[in-house]
Amino acid sequence: MSTATLSSQQVIAKFDRYVIPNYRRYPVCLTRGEGSVCWDAEGKRYLDLFPGWGCNILGHCPPAVVQAIQEQAAQLIHVPNSWYMEAQGEFAEILCTRSFGKAFFCNSGAEANEGAIKLARLKQGPSRYKIITCANGFHGRTFGALSATAQPKYHEGLGPMLPGFRYAPYNDLAAIERLIDAETAAVLLEPVQGEGGVNIPDDSYLQGLRKLCDDHGLLLIFDEVQSGSGRTGKWFGYQHSGVQPDIMTLAKGVAAGVACGALICTNELAPSLKPGMHASTFGGNPLAMAAGIATFQTIEREGLLDHAVKMAERFRGHFEALRQEVPIIQDLRIRGMMIGVELSVPAGTAVSYCMERGVLINVTHDTVVRLLPALNISAEEVDEGCEVICQAIREIAEQTGS
Ligand SMILES: *Cc1c(COP(=O)(O)O)cnc(C)c1O
């Protein structure tokens, strides 16, 4: 099954010698993938319910995206933004006709959020520089995005942060209102928190935020790096609440695993990013754009938004049944292919339990089993994965004497 020439151990030895050890890695080298399945260097098969940390929104190597990349690579890989290029215009059209406004392209989620922070400050002027964000949010690792990320563990040893960020608890409108002053420029948050544990706010919260921002002349910025691009069963997460932001950031799944980020802003805001004020050398390159176009076309052609909603209900069925059986499932939070199963006890051991049995999952914030399955996962694959995950949770229940 494998085309690998080195064993996992041989690859790990190279990493030990030459790669900076800033990631905790599973002791396995993946070599090949197809949809929701991938294989390691020893030929072991895994069902991947967290493909590419959410980047591989169509699973591994979706054929239409592979073909688009191959064809584009033979034509133009990169041209700078001093030229027009067809693919960038087309992908911008695809994104904006499904959302609003105009697009700027970059290469990652953090970079998209940096653009949003700069745009907010440029629009609001030098006396209004403060941005309110939410506890347990995640916006990326560059200094602006990191300062926006209200999680002390990610700031440790790196201070001082960029000035001007104020943090409020999530899903608490009054807390945001209390932080607004004459220097506030914007509110930045995820319409569904991902890394923070798949936290789904009340629709009324987002609607209230929209009104609060309008009343105070603030920009509302949604970080849809994880919740966008079809992930929640709609093109963009904000479309569940009917609340349109002034700025939206995208990355992760937007080009099905090719590095790509985007910032969408209203037509009114767009002129604030003047030539010379912001740029990204690789941003909007033809290769990423071709992948993005093929991604959105595939989601549409294969009806994957509706499919994701159906598969979400299938996941829910499995986990609701388990909830009747074991007492440690505290909460079940599912929006499309964004799935969080919160336990009342640490869930970390579920990752290795599942991996040994050939199922890849994630645990975040210690107690939340998190899945970001591909939008095109099959019903059989949902059943196969849930059987193993449910068994892992039963084991945890037994071990904790619950
Ligand atoms: C992953 C993530 C980011 C950071 O994206 P990078 O591409 O790693 O910079 C930002 N915001 C959200 C909501 C994310 O999930």
Taken as a percent bin, the fraction of beta residues is 15-25%
Give the topology string: H per helix, E per strand. Answer: HEEEHHEHEHHEHEHEEEHHEEHEEEH
Terminal-residue CA separation: 41 Å
Fourth CATH level, the homologous superfamily of the largest domain? Type I PLP-dependent aspartate aminotransferase-like (Major domain)
Please give the structural blueprint:
Blueprint: H1 8-18, E1 30-34, E2 37-40, E3 45-48, H2 63-73, H3 86-98, E4 102-106, H4 109-124, E5 130-134, H5 143-148, H6 152-155, E6 165-168, H7 173-179, E7 184-189, H8 203-216, E8 219-223, E9 247-250, E10 261-265, H9 286-301, H10 304-325, E11 329-335, E12 338-343, H11 349-356, E13 359-360, E14 362-364, E15 368-371, H12 379-399
Parallel strand pairs: 3-13, 5-6, 5-7, 7-8, 8-9
Antiparallel strand pairs: 1-2, 2-3, 4-10, 9-10, 11-12, 12-15, 14-15
